[in-house]
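Q: Hi! First time doing this. I have a protein sequence and I read that you can turn it into a structure. Is that right? Here it is:
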Amino acid sequence: DRAKLQTLFATPGYASPVEIGQLPNPSDPSKYTVGTGQGSLGMGGRDYYLETGPKYDAFRAAYRAYVERMLTLAGLTDASARADRIIALETAMAKVQWSPVQSRDLLAMLKPMTAAQRTALAPEFDWPLLLQTSGYGDFPVVIMSNSTALTGLGKIFAETPVSTWQDWMKFRFAVAAAPMLPRTFDEATFAFYGKTLNDQPAQRARWKRGIAMVNGTMGEAIGEIYVKRHYPPESEAKMGELIANLRAAYKDRITANSWMDAKTKTAALAKLAAFDPRVGHPVKYIDYSSFQVVRGDPLGNAIRAGEFQHQLDLSRLKAPVDRTLWEMTPQTVNAYYNPLANQITFPAAILQPPYFDPKADAAVNYGAIGAIIGHEMGHGFDDQGSLFGPTGKVENWWTPEAKTAFKARTGALSQQYDAYEPIPGVHVKGALTLGENIGDLGGVETAYAAYQKYQASHGKAPVIDG
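A: Yes, that's right. Below is the predicted 3D structure, encoded as C-alpha cells:
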C-alpha cells in the first residue's frame, strides 16, 4: 500500500526519499514556509555510490555486508537478497540526486510551487498526503528544492516494489536506532560508519555517547546549566568590543573596495549595519516539561524526543519567526551565520580557551575568536550569503557590474583551491568549499585590521612571545 508507505515517509523518525520541513520564507523571512527536497542515503553522500576505483569499490562491498548484517540481526529472512535490492534502490536514488555543488546553488534550490506545479513535477508522490501527515497541509505554496531530483525520485518510488521500500525503511530505522538496540546492532554500525567510512580506530566511551544523546534531545536544558557554571559576565563585554571592532574593520574594507561601485557599497554597508550578533546563550530556553523521559526505555525516549521537537516546530509555524531562537546549544564549540536572519551566533562554549579568554592578551583573542567572528561575518558576503539582504530576504542588491567583478574574484579563488591536493590523488573542490574559503580569508584579514583598531583606542600592545 503506497499510501501507508508515504504516511510513514512523513512521520518523524523514519527515512524517506523526500524530506519535508519548515524554514523562514526566503521572500519574507518574518514568516515561516515549508520546503521539501531530496532525502538522505544510507551511506551518506552520493559519491559513495557513483565514484569508481578500488577505494569506493571497497566502501560499497563493506556497506553491502553491513546492510545484510543489520537485516539478519533484525530477524529478517533472506537477508542477502533483501540487501541486494536495498543497494540497488539507493544506487538508483544516488544517480538522480543533486551533487553537493549543485545544492549550493540557492536560486536553483529555492523553487516555490503550487499544488498543481508539485503534481506536475513529481506526480508519483501524493503531496497532499505527505504534507498533511507532516503537519504542513495548510501551505498552498511549498519550496521544492532539488527539483529534477524530486522528479527522478518520484519515478523510482513508483517503479520500486512496496516490499523493497519496506525493507529499506526497516534497515534505515535499525541504523538510526542502533545505539539504543542490543550491542550487536551498535557494534556492526560502528564497524561500518566508524571504522570503514571514517577510519575511527575505537568507539567513544559509553558514558560519552550517553552525554551526547542527552545533549541531542535536551540540549538547551544542559546549556542553561553550562552557562551558569562556565560563562562569566566579563566574556560578554569583551565579545561586544571584539564584534564592534570587527564590524568597523569590515566597514573600512567595504568602503575602500576598489572593484565595488558606490550603489553596491551602500547596500553592502546597510547589510553590515543590520548584522545581529548573539553571544553566549539564548535569552530564553526551551521548556522540556512536556517531554516524557522513561527510565530503561532509551529507544522510546529517542522516538519521543523526535516527536517533541517536531511538535515544537509545528507550534511555531503560524506565528512570526522568533529571531531569539538558536540553532546551536550554548555548550556547542562552534559558531554560525544565519542568512535568513542576518545573524551571527557565538555559543558560550566557543568563548573558552584556546579560542577566547577575557583575561588573555588582546592579540590572542583577536587572532583566535576574532578570526572566527570575521569568518562568520564573511558568510554574509560570500557566494551564498551575498544573495540575501539586510533582513534575510533573498534579494539582489548588486549592480550587474559589481556582480560580474565579484564572480571573477570568487572564480579565481575556486580555481586556487581546486589546485590543492591534501591527499595524493584527491583535490579540493573549490566550488564546494568556496563559502568557507571566503569566510576564512576575509576573517583572518579583518581580524587583523580589527586588532589595529583595538590598539588605536587602547594603546600599542607589547609584543608577546609565541
